Amino acid sequence: MHELSIAASIVEAVTESASAYPGARVIAVRLRVGALASVVEDSLQFCWELASEGSPVAGAKLVINKLPVIVHCDACGVDSELEGVQSFRCPRCGELAADLRQGRELEIESIELEEPEPNESKRMESETDKPDPVEEHI
After folding, report:
1. What is the pLDDT of residues 73-131, one digit of tens each?
2. Does residue 59 come out as left (phi exceeding 0), alpha (psi in the -120 to 50 range) or beta?
């Protein structure tokens, strides 16, 4: 089950990206997954829950956008979606279409963040603005 290592890599990448937005919470992560990426969606969803547990992205929704296989046929010059991917032949003319244009992707498409509540960020600022009690001398 390579989905666990994929999920762990996604958690790591999203955590790193989200760190640029202090206090923001990750709501959703959207992926683009091609039909030829050899990813089982249910397994990836299950592994996402395991990999994200206890991390800054815990509780975030994993949204998977499945992409079909699209090939370009040099013979007729058309890009076509392959149904079932049993053959890499152009559905229009029947010629071999070896120019794969889409279908192998496994990419983070977007990360949805929720900004911290204004009161919470002010509270956090005021806590950091307080002088350290050890440094206060009368």
Report:
1. 999 999 999 987 778 888 899 899 989 999 999 999 999 999 887 765 454 444 445 44
2. left
Q: Which domain holds residue 43?
A: 3-68+103-130
SS3 content of the chain, % helix, strand, coil (to 5): 30, 30, 40
pTM: 0.76
Residue 122 shares a structural domain with residue 76:
no
Position 38 in a domain:
yes
DSSP state of 8: H
How far, in whole angstroms, is CA 14 from its chain's centroid?
7
Residues 27 and 79 in one domain: no
Q: In the block, which residue shows the tokens 């202090």?
A: 22
In a domain? residue 138: no
Classify 63 as helix, strand or coil.
strand
Question: What does R_g of the chain's alpha carbons equal in angstroms?
Answer: 23
Identify whether residues 83 and 20 lie together within a single domain. no
| Placement of tokens 């498409």 in the chain | 109
Stated as kind and residue range, the H or E segment containing 80 is strand 78-82
